[in-house]
Write a structure and sequence with these properties.
Layout (H helix, E strand, L loop, with lengths): L7 H12 L15 E2 L4 E2 L27 H5 L15 H4 L13 H9 L10 H13 L8 E6 L7 H15 L4 E6 L18 H6 L7 H5 L3 E2 L4 E4 L5 H4 L4 H14 L2 E6 L8 H7 L4 E4 L3 H16 L3 H5 L2 E5 L10 H9 L4 E5 L3 H4 L11 H20 L2
Parallel strand pairs: 3-7, 3-8, 4-6, 4-7, 8-9, 9-10
Antiparallel strand pairs: 1-2, 5-6
Length: 393
């Protein structure tokens, strides 16, 4: 009987006997090795004898983190979560190479930029870059809560109101949000006389009409707005009435100002034990101490810091700024560097306010008419104050 005469059952028996005890499911069959002859069917089995390598028992999985940072990502670290939208910052995405650099602001650099059809871009000068850097610091974003910054000292006549005005103007010129300066001096303050007065309303009117104030439009009628966009709320002009401005009244005014303004400057009186001083300091996110350039003025300013530390405001003192007004009497006879050195051991920073005849007159202050050095000092003070407000967020 020939091969083709066998039925299917006989073929299966012969193939099973040829394979023996080896199962095709347990062995690897290589293509081309199976040889089926007309007479017999044989299969050559090739075993895969490569050793199986098992993972070590103590192998640890790759560590992954969830606190995503750009610096760690650049180092190749892995994270459990996708990169958040907050990582898409302007510093990362904007191409600041020379080709895409903004046009120079002015001068020969700007002329060369347009004369070469925008092919040569030297960028802004160092002075312009420094000014823009100060603008960026002053304009830094704050959280939604209003920031209160008292300006105070224990001695009158050292320029506290002048410093409050300069600080407010510098802030208002570089920030997009609203800034207000409140005159909380119980002895008839003169803050409103440093700007062009456009209303006769005072803090007393705000207290009396608080329930009727329904929005910023109503409140804005009670303040005087400078050309720099600084709003000023005057104190009571009558000294007899001003004595009645107490802690409760200040809280009413402060709560109202906090609704509409991001930064609230408080021009405080010289009496640090007055009842208004307590809520002023309790609300404070920053602090400016004003010192004159004479021996007694510097000593009283330092004693103000000591009083604050002794009454539980040590953290506020360490984050405060001293504005050293060099336009006071006897400044030329005093070693101002020694005064600065003393205050640097107690506070975060010291800013020296230079003499300016436009300030010495004691009348309305026009920021654009001040000397360049005075403007730069005011802007530096504003930047340092905002630096401290950002750090407290």
């Amino acid at each position: 009987m020939g091969f083709f005469d066998k039925n299917e059952g006989e073929l299966e028996n012969e193939q099973t006997e040829s394979v023996g005890t080896h199962s095709l499911g347990e062995t690897a069959v290589q293509p081309g090795v199976v040889d089926v002859a007309p007479a017999t069917a044989s299969v050559e089995i090739i075993r895969d004898e490569r050793p199986i390598v098992e993972a070590p028992q103590d192998a640890q999985p790759l560590s992954r983190r969830t606190n995503y940072t750009r610096r760690d990502s650049l180092r190749g670290e892995s994270f459990d979560q996708p990169e958040p939208a907050a990582m898409l910052t302007a510093d990362r995405l904007i191409d600041n190479t020379r080709r895409n650099r903004p046009a120079p602001e002015s001068g020969f650099r700007r002329f060369l930029y347009f004369a070469t059809l925008k092919l040569v871009n030297l960028g802004d000068s160092a002075k312009v870059r420094a000014r823009k850097a100060i603008d960026a610091r002053i304009g830094a974003a704050l959280d939604g809560r209003a920031k209160f910054v008292p300006v105070l000292t224990r001695k009158g006549g050292v320029g506290k109101t002048t410093v409050s005005t300069l600080l407010g103007m510098a802030l208002s010129l570089s920030r997009e949000d609203r800034i207000i300066a409140i005159d909380a001096n119980p002895d008839r303050g003169t803050l409103a006389e440093r700007v062009s007065k456009s209303t006769r309303f005072t803090v007393r009117d705000v207290v009396n009409r608080a329930a009727a104030i329904d929005g910023f439009t109503d409140f804005s009628t009670m303040v005087s707005r400078d050309i720099t966009r600084l709003d000023v709320l005057a104190s009571d002009p009558d000294p007899m009435l001003s004595e009645a401005f107490d802690e409760g009244d200040y809280n009413v005014v402060a709560d109202m100002a906090a609704r509409y303004y991001s930064i609230v400057l408080t021009d405080c009186g010289t009496g640090i034990v007055h009842s208004v001083m307590r809520p002023t300091l309790q609300r404070a996110s920053g602090l400016v101490i004003v010192s004159g350039g004479s021996v007694d003025e510097a000593r009283l300013a330092s004693e103000t810091l000591t009083w604050l530390e002794a009454n539980g405001y040590g953290d506020l003192v360490r984050n405060s700024v001293v504005a050293l007004n060099t336009a006071t009497q006897a400044t030329q006879l005093v070693k101002l560097d020694e005064i600065e050195q003393h205050f640097r051991t107690r506070v975060r920073h010291v800013v020296r306010i230079p003499y300016d005849p436009a300030l010495a007159a004691g009348s309305v202050i026009k920021f654009s008419s001040l000397r360049k050095a005075t403007q730069e000092a005011a802007r530096e003070l504003a930047a340092i104050v905002v630096d401290g407000l950002v750090e407290t967020i």
